[in-house]
Amino acid sequence: MELCRLGSSDIWISPIIMGTWQAGRDMWADIEDQESVRAIQAALDAGITTIDTASAYGKGHSEQIVAKAVKGVRQEVVLATKVFANDLARDRVSAACHRSLRHLQTDYIDLYQIHWPAGSFGTARVPIEETMEALNALKAQGKIRAIGVSNFSREQLAAALACGEVVSLQPPYSLFWRQVETDAAPLCREKGVSILAYSPMAQGLLTGKFAPGHQFAPGDHRRAHRLLQPEHAARIQAALDALRPLAARHAATLGQLALAWVLSRPNTCAIAGARNAAQVRENAQASAIRLSPEDLEDMERIGRTVTDALDDNPVQWQW
What DSSP string describes 154-178? Predict the structure, then answer.
């Protein structure tokens, strides 16, 4: 898997990134720790050198699972984690970073990201200047190598960039969820900020595994996903049916086709979660798919049948 540069940093990441929200177990169902460890190790074996986690994933449990999985090979892995919106005051940023360092059993974090902007979910509205000052200090101390942001609008990203070097933006981005394209993506291209797309398979919808009326287990956050509400079901199923011949043309699954589409976007990598090693290996194979201009034109048309019915709200869930 050919690596790509993370923004303007000296860090090189895999185009497919191992997402580990599910390893935190909270807001998911039927997740086993040992299976998560095996999945992360399978990612490394498949050439996925970059792992994304967050302090909020199971209150640090995901970070601890990542630490178990990369024990003995830390130097070969790029670790990305996040500080949550309730820890963006100057002293709380430092405390949160050191807590993540302990969970990850490492003395540095490659990419440290602001998970959600200050004020999200009723948190304190800490000025971005204060948060960036704390992050810049952690970088100067060698605790973190690079700074990123997640779920930021264009305006919020511009404000962060005015306070220091920001190398990445992590937005929700898939063939079925494209608000970032008309908001922050042009600024990312202008400033050389990498886009690390989360939910590149639309929380599993683009795998085609969820039949109309699918019921998620209690506690699974996808029950609240906007695309999984009844009013979108017919459009999504029609779009998936239209995508199947394209996937077959590349001897690919629908999920692999969805990942390949994200990777075809400028300066964009895909964060793909997986419950087990088999899913990880399937995801990794998507990096070899090369979509033709005709493929991309067809996928653009098909994807718009879903996205044209959505509003501009970038948050995927009805929380």
Answer: HHHHHHHHTTS---EEE-B-BTTB-
Judge whether 157 and 120 are in contact, CB under 8 Å: no
Phi-psi group of 111: left, alpha or beta (phi > 0 → left; psi -120 to 50 → alpha; rest → beta): beta
Backbone angles phi, psi at 52, to 5 degrees: -110, 130
What pLDDT does residue 37 have? 97
pLDDT for 217 equals: 72
Question: Hey, where are the domains in the chain?
Answer: 4-307
What positions carry a catalytic annotation?
57
| CATH code for the part of the protein at 4-307 | 3.20.20.100
List of long-range contacts for 248-255, beta carbons under 8 Å, 24+ apart: 249/295, 250/289, 250/291, 250/295, 252/285, 252/286, 252/289, 253/207, 253/208, 253/282, 254/206, 254/207, 254/208, 255/201, 255/206, 255/207, 255/208, 255/282, 255/283, 255/286
Burial per residue of 194-220, b for 16 or more beta-carbon CB atoms within 10 angstroms, e otherwise: bbbbbbbbbbbbbbbebeeeeebeeee
pLDDT at position 210 is 78
d(CA 256, CA 269) in angstroms, rounded, equals 14
Interaxial angle between packed helices 128-140 and 90-104, expressed in degrees from 0 to 180 and rounded to the nearest 10: 40
pLDDT mean values, one per 10 residues, the chain (319 residues): 96 98 85 95 98 97 98 97 98 98 98 98 97 98 98 98 98 97 97 98 91 71 81 93 98 98 97 95 97 98 96 86
Token digits of residue 136 = 């810049």
What phi-psi label fits residue 31: left (phi over 0), alpha (psi between -120 and 50 degrees) or beta? beta
- Looking at residue 79, the DSSP 8-state letter turns out to be E
